[in-house]
Amino acid sequence: MIPTLVLCAALSLVQAAPPKKLTASIDRVFGAQARVDTLRTDSLLVLRISRSDSLLGFATVGNVIGKDQPITFLVAIDPEDRLKDIDILVYREPQGGEVAYEPWRRQFRGKSVTDSLRVGKEIRNISGATISVNSVTIGVRHLLARLTELHRRGAIK
Description:
Layout: H1 10-16, H2 19-30, E1 35-40, E2 45-51, E3 54-65, E4 70-77, E5 83-91, H3 102-106, H4 130-152
C-alpha cells in the first residue's frame, strides 16, 4: 500500500473536477451528444454514458496525490470493461504535467483488469514525472478494478 495514494469518495471528486472540463472530457471520450446519467453505488459515483438506447460505457473521477498536490483524473471504460481512455482533469503540480499528454494517456486504451498496468512494463515512465506517473497509474488501476467489479456484479448497468 502506498501511503500517499488518496482515493476519495467519488461524490467529492466530481465536485473537485471543473464541470466544463468534465463535460469536455466525456465529449472527447464518448463523442458529443452522449447522454450522461449518474449512478450512486456504495462508495463511488459512476457516470453511465449512452446514446439512444446504446450503452457506450461508464466513467468515474478520482484523485491521487502527486508529489505534493492532488491530481484529478477521469477513468472511462467501455461495456466490455476495457479502458476506453483516461483524462487528467486537473493537474496542480509545477512539474510532471506530461501525464496529461495524449501519447502517454493512449497507452492505457484497451487495457483491462487482467493487464498488469505496471510502470516500466506496460506503462512508460516519464523522466521528471516519476511520482505523477506512478500515482496516476495506481489510481487508474484502482478505479478500473472498481468499475469492472461493479459492472460485473450488476451494481451498474
